[in-house]
Amino acid sequence: MALNDLFRQPLKVINTGLVSFKTNLETAGATAIQVSWKPPADVKKEAVTILNAHQHQIDEANRKALDIILNGKPFLTGMDKALDVIPGMRKDLILHSGPPITWDRMCGPTRGAIMGALIYEGFATTIEEAEKVASSGEIDYAPCHEHASVGPMAGIISASMPVFIIENEAYGNSAFCTLNEGLGKVLRYGAYGPEVIEKLRWMEKIMYPVLKNAIRKLGKIDLKNIIAQALHMGDEVHNRNRAATSLFYRTIAPAIVETSENKEDTVKVLNFINGNDHSFLNLSMPASKACLDAARNIPYSSIAVVMARNGTDFGVQLAGTGDKWFVGKSPVPDALFFPGFTKDDANPDIGDSAITETMGLGGFAIAAAPAIAQFVGGTAQDAIQYTLDMYEITAGENNVFQIPYLNFRGTPTGIDVRKVIEQNITPFIDTGVAHKNPGVGQVGAGVLSAPMEPFKKAFEGLAEEIQH
Amino acid sequence: MIFKGLIKKGSYYDSVSLMILSKELNKLDGIVDSSIVMGTAENKALLSAVGLNLEVFHDAGETDILIGIKASSLPAAENALQKIDQLFNDLQHHQDQSTDKNVHSFGAALKQLPEANLSLISIAGKYAAGEAMKALKQGLHVMIFSDNVSIAEEYELKQYAHDHELLLMGPDCGSAIINGIPLGFANVVQKGNIGIVAASGTGLQEVSSVISNHGAGISQAIGTGGRDIRKEIGGIMFLDALKVLGDDEETKVIVMISKPPHPDVLQKIADHVKKIKKPVIGILIGGNPEILRQAGVIPAITLEQAGLYAAAVSKGKETGSIDNDLAQRKTGIVALASTSGKGLQGKFLRGLFSGGTLCDETQLVLKDTIGYTYSNSPLNVDFRLTDLWKSRENSIIDLGEDEFTQGRPHPMIDYSLRNKRILQEVSDTDVAVILLDVVLGYGSHPDPASELVPVIHESKKISPAILFIGSVTGTDQDPQNKKNIVRELEKAGMIIMPSNVAASELAGQIIHQLSSKQPSRSI
């Protein structure tokens, strides 16, 4: 705008800094908007210099990464045993959520879930035995994420567990996830009692074949479409999956009835899915994983392809830094607790489910889910503000997932670590809360802002990667 | 009839939004009918019914959007297809304007207020340049209120702004008035035909207030930041501002305010002024105005004089009578000094200022009557205070300087430091007179009288003979209302003069008379 043109227009001001200036401007009759500015997060100066110098390459790489993430086409195409389908899976390997971790540093819920899985797999018959085996070195541990998989909470996947197979038709990669066990005493929250093991066995022997046949009958199920519709129905598909589960149920139920041979099993399986609002979580997660994994290994890209927690550490991976993990301490979420529990009982944040936020869902889409606004201060306005904040740290807006309240604006998608640092805002995550001791289970649900440390390390790590 | 089909792959919109889009398409010239639907089997059947289930849609799936157009001509159909992306974009970005959402970045703010034309920045200096550049790159004018921006950054920003015909006011630009809107610290002045360019914030405030209080008005008042006229910056914005005011139709008279510029910069300014066909009044606080005079500028010595000249010229009057009036007033002040100086104890003057330029001006006025004064920002380096927390003899302190404002709001907003210093000064039995500036306007303390009146009363308990003299920069239209503030301060026993110059002259005269009586008093 040429200088003289300014004199012919009403003054419209973006005010960054003193709020009183904004008030003054408005009193004097100008239009003004306040920027709630924060200084950037503190990272090494050299890293800032390097990333600034390569801004155009990074922007270009991010466009490419975002394009891949947005154009993913995740379909549920089948089911199989983990051992037979997850790349690199072995009988003596147990996958867990979050970044890599050794037994001695694992949190209570993860240990509990591993001990439960060892009993389920027949490595042990008592919990004492299981603990001994777990720490003996006979068993190897690896992150789900390093095996194209994701798991909620403790995220334990062992060889015999049946898993969903999700294929990203646009890019040919696959992702895997176990079946959701429902609420209450469940393995993913670190419970390992006999009823937990029994349920896992039932899921393997009865539910798995029924579902597998039904999926085979349908050929494939478009998960992206279900998620997009669910967002219009009040889900953000992390802490609220009620609509998505209903849509999934509507899709799969006729095929189950048609393919199942045993009426009793049919009823049980249908009721199990129907009775568990979180059934779809174990599909929204691998659907997100499949889209994000396709955007790995894009040199220079500062977009996150993984955010995951193992209950001890919070880990981040970027599209531009290969298999490197950037790790910081996992925080305890702000939560609403079930009767009888308090924050003192809560384990630090845990699970691979933050893959949904990485994909522009969950906390990033909480404005679409007013029904769970009580987790974020109680009003729909609070929920909307959280989503709006996330637009400031993302590379783009989703082309498919939308927020009705924001006039169908696409959800904020593609976390750009540069923006996280510059805006000093970390991703906002919806989450469930596990008891810190093994064997207890879920104690609440809530939200948290991701810790800054892993993002600082990722920022500096990308600079290092670019320099070498 | 032309049929055209387009598929947007892998997208999802609800049917209501898509129907609205197709309604928009139907409004376009030459469009007979259109349909935008998700590619479900049911929707394809609907398309068939209206003859729009085109062959290209055959393989489209449920997550694809099918756009079918029936048009009277090929160009009309193609035009409609070109509009599609914009329509989808509008749909996605049509934001609710009614609620004020919290935004954390310039980019997000610009999305919410896309027609923004100025960015006002008052964050910590080391981040200010980055934020300013973001705004310039988006074509916004910028005012940087923050100080502590490096001179290299200032140069880069100003060069960029100059190349893109943008205004970059600052850094350390305290005051501006654009389109009648006060920015930063600024007064509510009458609209008018006088344009101001100022490399001095309080200079701008004092001159614009004087103009407004004398029945004239301001078109635009552009601040450049105090360093603009240094050699390193070369007056980039000062010259651009002169140019734009020279071209501005509403501006009939121009006032330039600055400390003495670097000689090269002064020459550039003089060369530029020669091209301006409007009257230009110039004040170089403490500088030699000869080069300006040769360039056709009407030179002023004080801020008040500059304001009075401008007001007169803008109304087509001569400036000669102003000089006479001011000379007469000076004679009056000598008389006033002898009456109001009666019964004073002590012999020294302590000036405590919130406005840097007013502090400079006072020292210049005093030089003629009582010589150089001690200061943290002295005219003569020999008079620099070694301990700025402790005045000596006649001292004039600029409390707005960095060493006082570190970690503290500016003294125009926060009076606590000055109040404390006043009590400290009056406890010194050698002190006879306290000289103050009171700056009103947006940005400043909402009620300075509520701060000063109690401290004046307390001072009189400590030193009953102490005399307070001052001036109030501002207008009756300011949120604080100059008339009310003056009345309350006078009620507390403070002498309020019509300008900083007059207040300084009075204070100087009193001290001068006290010191000439001194020998007889000491007997």
Describe this protein's structure.
With 468 residues, chain A is α+β, with helices and mostly antiparallel strands. Among the domains of chain A are: 33 residues, no CATH class; 198 residues, v583 fold (Alpha-Beta Complex). In chain A, 38% of the residues lie in helices and 20% in strands. A 4-stranded antiparallel sheet of chain A has the order 7-6-3-8. In chain A, β1, α2 and β2 form a beta-alpha-beta unit. In chain B, α16 packs parallel to α17. Chain B folds into 3 domains: 92 residues, Alpha-Beta Plaits (2-Layer Sandwich); 210 residues, 3-Layer(aba) Sandwich (Rossmann fold); 199 residues, Succinyl-CoA synthetase domains (Rossmann fold). Chain B has 18 helices and 18 strands. Chain B is an alpha/beta fold and 523 residues long. At the A-B interface, α1, β1, α2, β2 and α9 of A face α3, α4, β4, α5 and β8 of B. β1 of chain A pairs parallel with β4 of chain B.
CATH fold description of the largest domain in chain B? Rossmann fold
Low-confidence stretches of chain B: 95-99, 519-523
- Judged by helices, strands and strand pairing, the structural class of chain A is alpha+beta
The geometry of chain B reads as: elongated
Can you tell me the CATH class of the largest domain in chain B? Alpha Beta
Put simply, the count of helices of chain B is: 18
Helical proportion of chain A, percent range? 25-40%
Quickly count the domains of chain B: 3
CATH superfamily of the largest domain in chain B: Succinyl-CoA synthetase domains
- What's the N-to-C terminus distance of chain B? 115 Å
Chain oligomer state: heterodimer
CATH architectural group of the largest domain in chain B? 3-Layer(aba) Sandwich
